[in-house]
């Protein structure tokens, strides 16, 4: 896919993922990231432990972390930066996605427009 990384990690996200994986109760090959339909804005990001790569998944190696991308999510996630933020009230993974067009007020779901073939051909994810 023209040299773009579907997703990149900040140092904070990579360190948090490493810490979570180190505490897992079974061997983990990486983190699987995707999107699913749901929520008031239309879509939600998904994350889960991955014991192995599924057929068709993109594999991203970034900052010592392996991320598997659900093939149905690639065009929704292209160019996304995954961060981990801690505030006085919460700690959470945050997706800085150039394809996201809006988010719900509760922060649980987003509206995402997939990358079009024209944008891909132009060489820019955003």
From TrEMBL:
Gene3D superfamilies on file: HesB-like domain
Pfam families: Fe-S_biosyn
InterPro entries the record matches: ATAP (IPR016092), ATAP_core_dom (IPR000361), Fe-S_cluster_asmbl/transfer (IPR050322), HesB-like_dom_sf (IPR035903)
Family from the record: Belongs to the HesB/IscA family.
PANTHER family the record matches: IRON-SULFUR CLUSTER ASSEMBLY 1 HOMOLOG, MITOCHONDRIAL, IRON-SULFUR CLUSTER ASSEMBLY PROTEIN
All copies of domain Core, residue ranges: 7-108
Entry coiled-coil feature ranges: none
Protein name, per record: HesB/IscA family protein
């Amino acid at each position: 896919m023209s040299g773009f990384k579907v997703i990149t990690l900040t140092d904070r996200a990579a360190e948090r993922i490493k810490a979570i994986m180190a505490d897992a109760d079974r061997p983990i090959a990486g983190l699987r990231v995707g999107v699913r339909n749901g929520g008031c804005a239309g879509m939600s990001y998904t994350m889960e432990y991955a014991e192995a790569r599924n057929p068709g998944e993109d594999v991203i190696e970034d900052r010592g972390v392996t991320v598997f991308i659900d093939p149905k999510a690639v065009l929704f996630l292209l160019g996304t930066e995954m961060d981990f933020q801690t505030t006085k009230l919460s700690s959470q993974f945050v997706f800085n996605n150039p394809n996201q067009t809006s988010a719900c007020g509760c922060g649980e779901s987003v509206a995402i427009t997939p990358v079009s073939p024209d944008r891909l051909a132009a060489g820019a994810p955003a």
